[in-house]
Amino acid sequence: xxxxxxxxxxxxxxxxxxxxxxxxxxxxxxxxxxxxxxxxxxxxxxxxxxxxxxxxxxxxxxxxxxxxxxxxxxxxxxxxxxxxxxxxxxxxxxxxxxxxxxxxxxxxxxxxxxxxxxxxxxxxxxxxxxxxxxxxxxxxxxxxxxxxxxxxxxxxxxxxxxxxxxxxxxxxxxxxxxxxxxxxxxxxxxxxxxxxxxxxxxxxxxxxxxxxxxxxxxxxxxxxxxxxxxxxxxxxxxxxxxxxxxxxxxxxxxxxxxxxxxxxxxxxxxxxxxxxxxxxxxxxxxxxxxxxxxxxxxxxxxxxxxxxxxxxxxxxxxxxxxxxxxxxxxxxxxxxxxxxxxxxxxxxxxxxxxxxxxxxxxxxxxxxxxxxxxxxxxxxxxxxxxxxxxxxxx
Length: 394
Prior knowledge:
There is one protein chain. This protein is of the alpha+beta class. It folds into 2 domains: 10-249, Rossmann fold (3-Layer(aba) Sandwich); 269-384, CATH 2.40.50.100. Helices cover 25% and strands 31% of the residues. It is built from 10 helices and 20 strands. It has a 6-stranded mixed sheet with strand order 6-7-8-3-9-10, with helices on both faces. The longest helix is centred in the middle third of the chain and has 18 residues, at 192-209.
């Protein structure tokens, strides 16, 4: 639901400042207050409230079309909100052009000047600002040292790998010493091994510099491995804002439970102690993740790694599902089983060291504890149980 907010004008901003807020004006803090952005009749960002702490590594995570890139573009000044307020380091930034904001952005397309050397690319922003030659030279050297690229200062972009070009783009953003660095899916063009290496380097660099990083990605592994907190977005709003462990262990909604990691979902109805699935399985929960009245439509979910596979019938349908092994796949230190039940396939992941010796067609029972079960209302059933579809690019 879109929240009604005050239009953007000088009096509104002045009034908000007089009333005060919880905003920390420390350098590097970011706050969006009831921010809405529309493109025609489409609402890309819907009444968004978000606070980023100074020096925090925050990821905006969500499927394509959720509003994360539009949010980033409003922070950078490339788009203006239709409603609400944005403050960076305690200052309102509505109407301030990108080049006057204390924010720099690293894009997936590195946008390096092909005719310039590495050093010239990094120095470009400083020269545009009229920084002296001596200071420019010093700051360029410092920025290239940060990303371990000083030895390649005289090379042209075409003489470098994708990972090296990414480091140059990062140095070019850092050389301006911004209070906030935005990264819009900067690792998307790299191969898996290099991407994982850059994830480690980015997090170490951010910790070293203490600069606020706002990282946009649709890759949950990137967000989980680097972030202090993750804002999981859906349809222009934040579904959950928390640290990686919390969003994984205690998802605030069925969408978050399905988007972070993997989950097996069942439709059913709520009971006094959990969910009775449509296939008759009784899911007993330790604590409901969303309060649902008994008899109302509900969802139950169990992550693949939380199942225990046993070959002996436990003699109950409470937190136990009978089936037959349909496939076994080996992934290094993990073995993946697909167990075919009377109504569906169940995905199970087991550490190799603890994996039972099972073959296709073996009879098994997937067992789990009440603490392993998530339960939600059925309001997002179509999202978490839908087939993958083409997505937008907002």
